[in-house]
Design goal:
Largest sheet: 7 strands, mixed
Amino acid sequence: MSIQDLLVVGLTGMALAAVGYALYIKLRAKRYTRERYAFAFLASSTGLFGMLVTTLFAGPPWIALANLLRHWLPNIPQPAQAHLITRILVILGFVVLAWLQYRIWRHWSGGRSVHQAEAEQNKEQISVLDEGIRESRRLIRREPPLERFAGTGDREFDTIIESPTDSLAWRDQARELVELRWPSLHFDPHNDWHDREDAWVGRNQKRDCPSAILVTRTAPTKERIKRFVDYVQKLPGYRSGDNDLFVVVQEDIADTVLEVRGERIEQYSESKLLDSLVDFSDYFDEIRARVEVDKLPDSDLTLRHT
């Protein structure tokens, strides 16, 4: 029994386990997103590459397995060395298997994450390596599962009926509401919209610091807000903890203040921002005075007494 045989058998076992995991994800495709399959694909393709190298230089894995078994079962005959054509066929088998797994990822028909749906909508090119690494990072950090996209399941139909996360009218309205509420904030309507992140990025002219607005129709998830903060933190001129960050939501939600990655984020709904811009107190005072104080012509009575 040699260390080489142990390594080959161990690597083969891990590779087969990874291939089996990828197959399991495919069979349960409706329960998992494409990012999870990308993670399984990277694991299995790494294992297959290792098996390819060992087959090329040490022979097919079954020879190493037979050598290990002979250590406990001496009656097993010595395996013959594989011919060159056998090694080539085994290597081709690994390549075909990896190619088939890649095609499954390319034409994924299972669950979709919001990130995948947005990328497809925006015609972005995402590689299996990007998705696999992102999912690996998420699993290592034990972050919550990716937000799933709740579409019809028909990609062509979803592409037709889905408007972008925020329409042109709503994104401009959100910017105007924030600028009216906080006059020191300024966003160039032509240059400060970051379409990929659904965000306005401008400046607080009074404090000379960055300002950003995440514009959404529905309440964003924690993961979406974290992505927004990560994006802002990579912008030129970013200063940690000294930024004006907002989340403006079209649907009616409760106002709140969030702390994400060391940043303070204020979240408002459209209705609350509108309410804050309109003050009817003077109008109501005038109506009250006319009813309760002002007297009727040629009378000591007010409207309240009639």
